[in-house]
Write a structure and sequence with these properties.
This protein has about 100 residues and is of the alpha+beta class. Helices cover about 30% and strands about 40% of the residues. Strands 1-2-3-4-5 form a five-stranded mixed sheet.
């Protein structure tokens, strides 16, 4: 199944999300405390998408966005932090510790 991850940003608040039948079925909430820093605060995936690595796809999407926009990420979200810790070399360029 192919999923489209969308990004909506309003001011310093943002969300990467997946919609299905006009309902949000996965989300990653972030804030931008400065022009070069993104804080990932929360990730949630609905039961209907469990087992499809959607959470990891949201993380990778956020990392691509950060690289493209020359941002550093502070992973406050426990899930995102666990992904970063599993592959620190993959995220070293964007991970603000």
């Amino acid at each position: 199944m192919s999923v489209e991850i969308q990004n909506k940003k309003v001011g310093t608040q943002g969300i990467f999300y997946i919609e299905k039948d006009k309902a949000m079925v996965a989300e990653m909430v972030y804030t931008m405390p400065s022009a070069e820093t993104m804080i990932i605060e929360h990730t949630e995936v609905s039961e209907s998408l469990k087992g499809q690595n959607i959470g990891t796809k949201l993380v990778k999407n956020a990392v691509e966005y950060a690289r493209k926009n020359k941002l550093k990420i502070i992973p406050l979200c426990p899930f995102t932090l666990s992904v970063f810790k599993r592959h620190p070399e993959e995220y070293a360029d964007v991970w603000l510790k």
